[in-house]
Amino acid sequence: MVAIKTKVYHVAYAPAISKAYLFHWGCNLKCQGCLCNKEINCMALEENLDVVLRDPKLPKPKSPEQFLLLDELATILKKVPIKEVLFEGQEASIDPSYSDITKALKDEFGCYITLNTNGVKLPDLTNTDEIVMSLKAVTPDVYRAYTEHSNRNVLGNFCKVYQQGKKLRAESVFIPGMIDLDETEKIAAFVAMIDPNIPYRIDAYFESGAENPWRRATPDEMIEAVTVAKKHLVNVTCTQQTESKLEKKDLMYEVIRLY
Ligand code: SF4
């Protein structure tokens, strides 16, 4: 049998909820505030709880050099109970083995599979239960300035996934001076045009990328961002680290490295 190569370079796991997190290398966007400028492994690992505060001018992490074969990935995951698997960063949708991995995981574990994606390209979603699409921006010029690409496919793909009847959530990052209140409200209005009940999560930007001029979002700004989005959508939440320094006890559950 031919060994199937994946783009998975890191696997994290939350024992309390039997959930695995698969980290894929490679992306089809160039977001200026990409977290991978700072850290490429799971932020919830104990050694990465300082990421938000870490100096963005530190050298970028090295690109991974080792990737798992599908058989190796399955062997790692068989060692623990698996109820849920999240496909995430960089961009799992462009991993040529996406369809093979999701099928193998469904066959082996019958687990719930979620894809975090920028939505530029849709993979075969047959064995994917839920899609979380990061919309970045809906205004074409703003999107291009931030990602160096067009958002035409993304907006169309968001509609397509909804029409397929898949469970769908929207996400964006609130960046003061870049993806601001005005753009956040436009994202919410776009999502509401499709269905006002689609959940929308707004993540607070923190400094990532040595050349970026933007400061981190304040708690008041995040409250405002949620308020403007709620003019259009029923279910809006935000995430922001408010503790100056995170410790293991601050996490909802422990996350460990499997690979
Ligand atoms: S889509 Fe995600 S991984 Fe890709 S560049 Fe943007 S933030 Fe980074």
Automatic annotation (TrEMBL):
UniProt domain Radical SAM core: residue ranges: 12-235
Molecular function GO terms recorded: 4 iron, 4 sulfur cluster binding; catalytic activity; metal ion binding
Named cofactor requirement(s): [4Fe-4S] cluster
Sorted UniProt keywords: 4Fe-4S, Iron, Iron-sulfur, Metal-binding, S-adenosyl-L-methionine
UniProt xrefs under Pfam families: Radical_SAM
Gene3D superfamilies from the UniProt entry: Aldolase class I (3.20.20.70)
InterPro entries on file: Aldolase_TIM, Organic_radical-activating, rSAM, rSAM_sf
The keyword Iron is annotated on this UniProt entry: yes
The protein, known as: Radical SAM protein
